[in-house]
Amino acid sequence: MDIQITTKKSEGVERLLEVSVPVVAVRDEEEKTAKRYAASVRLPGFRPGKAPAAMVRKRFKDAIRQQVLETLVQEAFKEVMEREKLDVAAQPHVHDVKFEDDKPLTFELHLEVRPKVELARTHGFKVTRNPGTVSDAQVAEQLETLRDQKATWAPVEEQPREGDMVKVLLATPQNDGDEMPEGSPYNLVLGGGQAIAGIEELVMELAPGETKERVVRWPDDFPDEAQRGQSKNVRVTLEEVKRKSAPALDDAFAREVGDFDSLAALEAAVRKDLEEHAKRDADAAVRSALLDQIAEANPFDVPPSWVNRMIDAYMQAYQIPEEQRRQFAGEFAAVAEKQVRRDMLIDALADQQQLTASEKDVDERVAKVAEQRGTDPGQVYASLQKAGRLPEIERSITEEKVFEWLTSRNDVTTGTDL
Question: Which residue ranges form the domains of the chain, and what is each CATH number?
Fold first, then answer.
């Protein structure tokens, strides 16, 4: 099919082509399509395939025309790809279709081409690695978090203080001059920002069973703009006070938390966990810094459709409703583009340096997982395959190999703690 192709726009990865299919090709396709219809359709008074061609054309004119259009556009697109040597990055869009009798079929083809990532420089970069040292204070903080998780709440007959959980009846008139309504029950932890400061101060002046009434001013940054800066008469009745009691940090606590013989064993496990987490964070920071420097040294265009696809993935992960897409996309477009650029760099490096995970790599990783779980590798493989997670494992291995290759060819030094 001798089509005409005119490039109307070529910027970065975007192409806008005008395609013209000659009249003779249109007529040939119309003839072929009409014959296919005539051979298969049934018309009253005629045996299958014996209806006159003119009658078939008239009866199925719109259907034939639509089929001709779809076929010609598809064939023209294939020819465009072959002649222009284009590797498309996303589904192309057809616009401004003109399909008239005895005239060429013309349309505009808007597409994105897959950019070629040229990596002229991938070494000679310098990155400082966080030492990832875990301090005694960090271990103590994590132990306090564990204590807090095991804490219990018990009623006390005292005035509440910050950190206590209180049950109150809170009442305030709707408008100035209205009678004070019956209070509504609330449960809150003092100092947790669940109530405005003026109300918390009032609560902490009460003993269980007491009631006080006072004018309280709503803060200027209150979420409800209509109530900002307003002063209202508030009545509070304190019904109950509960105080948190955390267990002692001792060997008994260690045994309660997990399979630890002593507090020292628990502390060692907490430190090890924090060190592993710090190492993962340091590794991620090094990888990110290296990719950023390589991307800056080897600029290339990123297909907008890939960025949009990444934004969609973020929306799904964060459970963002579709009606908030425009705002979310505006805030996360730069983040999404950066991630797509990094993925493209990893793909290019894996391809150029032959670092893509092999079947053997995947099998070895599955075997390792099976060993950790104490189960059969075949069962683990089947489970991962059923869950569609094998590509995820393959990608993880590929990234590990790429970053191992990068760190071995660049200057990664470990910093010092301040």
Answer: 4-112 (3.30.70.1050), 152-245 (3.10.50.40), 253-414 (1.10.3120.10)
